[in-house]
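Example 3.
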Amino acid sequence: MTNEAVQLAGLTRRFGPVTAVDGLDLTIRRGEVVALLGPNGAGKSTTIDMLLGLLRPDSGEVRLYGESPAKAIARGAVGALMQTGGLLPDLTAEETVRLAAALQRNPRDVGEVIARAGVAEFARQRVGGLSGGQQQRIRFAMALVSNPDLLVLDEPTTGMDVETRRAFWASMREETAQGRTVLFATHYLEEADDYADRIVLLRAGRIVADGTSAQIKAAVSGRTIRATVPGADLAGLAGLPGVERVETRGEQVLLHCDDSDAALRALLDATTAHDIEVTSRNLEDAFIALTVAGSAS
Amino acid sequence: MNLTYLRLEAVRLFRNKRVVIFSTLMPALLVLIIGGVSVGGDPDAKQYVMVSMALFGAMTAAISSGGTIAVERGLGWNRTLRLTPLSPGAYVLNKVLLALLVAVPPVIVTFAIGAAGLHVRLTAAEWVLCFAGAWLSSLPFAALGVVIGYLAKPDSVQQVSALINLTLAAFGGLWVPVSLMPDFLRYIAKLTPSYWTGQVARSPLDGGHIDTQAVIVLLGWTLVLAVIALRRFRVDTARA
């Protein structure tokens, strides 16, 4: 019995000239809730496909609970929600979940899962006539009914409206409270921030940051000053001590600073700035700094 | 065997209606036209036509059932199944059992038309053996359907299945008796599985026995096609 749910070692996959996943090493322990965060094309889906054994890596190895993905899946240890397709339009929602349950070794109660995943209200309708968000809830129910140790979700809230998304994460929280290991891919920062114990930030097939939300924010030091500056001279503001970069948002300017104290003193001396706010950088800033700014260097 | 899976797959097949209607209607029309008009009053010819058409319907149904795999692959359903403990063997076995299930209605309908419309008269034993022969010898075509389901594209699978089906029916002697064919066509006929299914299904008409050589040839065809189908299932990992 290994303590590691997922072990990826030196995982690499190329598509023609593009290296989608580039020497990825990642270990996920039992009970962790991990977000695989990155912009489109960062290699999230390719990583998940290899993790589940749907795609063969060019090199490197995948172990789920110390076994090959195929073995772990055959044992019923893994449940997965994939991004697109994978449903039969001529079955009803309930039949689909019932079928998914029938194929598992140790399934949960179908009625309970249908209620939990929010499928009950359209349970008797054919899948083909349902909206993208409703189909996504069916996929979620199929993943839940398998009663897995490891739940893998590839962009789980794609196509869901805001309310459905909130309901989805509320039911996910109840799931993870029971000690299930979860890996989900997302490009929504707030989902990673709100629901993951640990965020793995991916860019161009490599891990650029790995830690709690707070650790990743801290990796990008500095603060932002937001102020209304009448007759602002952007070049002049950018030249103030401690200022790295200047942006405008309508009437307001944003000064991204490595030393906000020095910048603030200079700003008050040099201008008639008012309505001043100083904030530490959020996950979005860290995300941009690590994924976009990093790619230019 | 997973009964819930089998039941829901059967629900899908009969809900879609297309396979069932097409495979039953075609032989029903053919048996009326050829058996009722073309062959005149010869009772042996009527028997031959009835059993051959029943077989043709069973074969059509069995091939189309496997063809649904191509559509499922297009939908990404195979990826979904790969993420469950369902084994490749169970998946293919399931498709073959479904094929045998949808092969029943065309045989029943064609025999009913033969008995009521063409006044075909057989002993009870001959009816039973002909039914079993026409129905069960669709087995290699069920496996063939699975192979087509893996090799064809979702949007062309129907045309590909129909072409293979009609070619096999024609060259296997289901429409024109092999005994009326020139020598080289007779030789080709023996290379098709449909010739041997014809032998199995019609053999009870000559004294109520089953042609064991033909049965062995058909089992060979089934085995080879089933092995190809299993290999395709394992290779089939592409993202839909």
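The longest helix of chain B spans residues 43-75. The mean pLDDT of chain B is 87.
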